[in-house]
# Entry
Amino acid sequence: MPSYTVTVATGSQWFAGTDDYIYLSLLGSAGCSEKHLLDKPFYNDFERGAVDSYDVTVDEELGEIQLVKIEKRKYWLHDDWYLKYITLKTPQGDYIEFPCYRWITGDGEVVLRDGRAKLARDDQIHILKQHRRKELETRQKQYRWMEWSPGFPLSIDAKCHKDLPRDIQFDSEKGVDFVLNYSKAMENLFINRFMHMFQSSWNDFADFEKIFVKISNTISERVMNHWQEDLMFGYQFLNGCNPVLIRRCTELPEKFPVTTEMVECSLERQLSLEQEVQQGNIFIVDFELLDGIDANKTDPCTLQFLAAPICLLYKNLANKIVPIAIQLSQIPGDENPIFLPSDAKYDWLLAKIWVRSSDFHVHQTITHLLRTHLVSEVFGIAMYRQLPAVHPIFKLLVAHVRYTIAINTKAREQLICECGLFDKANATGGGGHVQMVQRAMKDLTYASLCFPEAIKARGMESKEDIPYYFYRDDGLLVWEAIRMFTAEVVGIYYESDQVVEEDPELQDFVNDVYVYGMRGRKSSGFPKSVKSREQLSEYLTVVIFTASAQHAAVNFGQYDWCSWIPNAPPTMRAPPPTAKGVVTIEQIVDTLPDRGRSCWHLGAVWALSQFQENELFLGMYPEEHFIEKPVKAAMARFRKNLEAIVSVIAERNKKKQLPYYYLSPDRIPNSVAI
# Structure
């Protein structure tokens, strides 16, 4: 009688093993086997990390094996099981791989296809078409869209982490408990004695060092020592943790009436301000988004304030970017002076602190939360709803949405919800952050997620003109490496543009993103469908780059740049100054966050800057969803290209006092998971 050797691999994460009964059935082109209990006498089967083999004898030839069915039945108590893959050795000596990488819960079952990626058109056999359809029907019941807040991109329909499908939950929920992690961070930073000291001001700038010195690094120490300098202020718009706002100024806005006379002592080329603008030496950052946003009122004992400043910057003869004028609100007038480097020291310093605080708010809520976390969740939900596991695009993207839906669900549960941790220390807490996202949705466009286009749209593409923009330089290298990789994968499975256009599952995926993620806004520029291999490759590059590189660039530098509180105040406790010549050092310290809020802020930026345990970095695909040699070769070339980028960045950083490493591929996690 024909005999098959079945090899079963159990996951190595915590609680992956099971003591439940495991049954296997084989479905072939010539018949189906009976249900076989996989069990060895006097042996503990399916332990965590184990690879177990079993001989399965069948009554008759089954023909080509099309599906493998695994059923789990309770032994004593329900015991979830993480199945990595099954390998089948046929009576003819052939090996067939069946990737799974899923949890089987309760009295559950899973039906697996072999690992070859297939488009819908490749499936001509009824049983395979049916399997494909059933999988999506099941997933669409599990992965439902929900509006968390009006105007937001839609998110997963789950109130808390434990409501999520088991396959997308964290292995250990404790590891991503924000309350626990922030408290642990404050303990590690030896600042927990200050954490309840709300309304208690620091004495002076040096006093902030009491919560700073225990865990510092090259960049954070340099920020502490140089944060008051104009060069450090300007540098952060290029290579800090929010390097996406600065744009070349092509015309001075009417609402910001800066004149040559005001700034001539800052201009180094003996040109008027208008001439400097024409020559491309003037840059602008406008925080208009913050205008009219409600400040945090959750603590009646502490008034908190926001501003919507405009900052003009200048490229000096050394090609460095420095600030030359700051207006702290949008409407010019006598009570809204334009602050200048030539003003009194503390006038200018407080104006810069207001800009840094505004930059922090836009960074946290828009650059980080909306444009990486929420966007990546949209891609993830659409993928699970519309692409079966056998689809090549599912196999390509699944590593890049790992834990994203889970971390966002946890954030909605603990962080950005009403009375969440965000309210504790941030001036945009208590609802302001929600208003910001609602406003920023109009600027969330497909083009703005295409990295080269986004750089060009801000007039920042010239390396000759702006030589120290490492975010741009490294980002373009990583974008191109991802684009080449996705183009290769697309070329393997789609032999023509017509095949792309006629792939119904792919088109449903793209349409889901447009309809539910972008709320069907035409102005978003998101495609409703993709019509060519080139367009598909770009779309996949956007998905992967946003989840990996863009998130890394704006997330993992938060401790570096925001741990020195005066450089990134999460709240301000006095309104912006309305006149010059009245600011004192005491006034600045009383405006900055109190001891309690400073500590919560520091705990947050430290916790957010840590990599996940067992982090998977760009190019790492330990789950072998693809089994075909051409794709594996493409992955190897991708890794080689990424390694070359790591070397280029490391070589440049050797010569830098302030290294820029956030876009080095060996520091870019595959997905948004923190």
Summary: Residues 437 and 466 are 30 Å apart (CA to CA). The chain is about 40% helix and 15% strand.
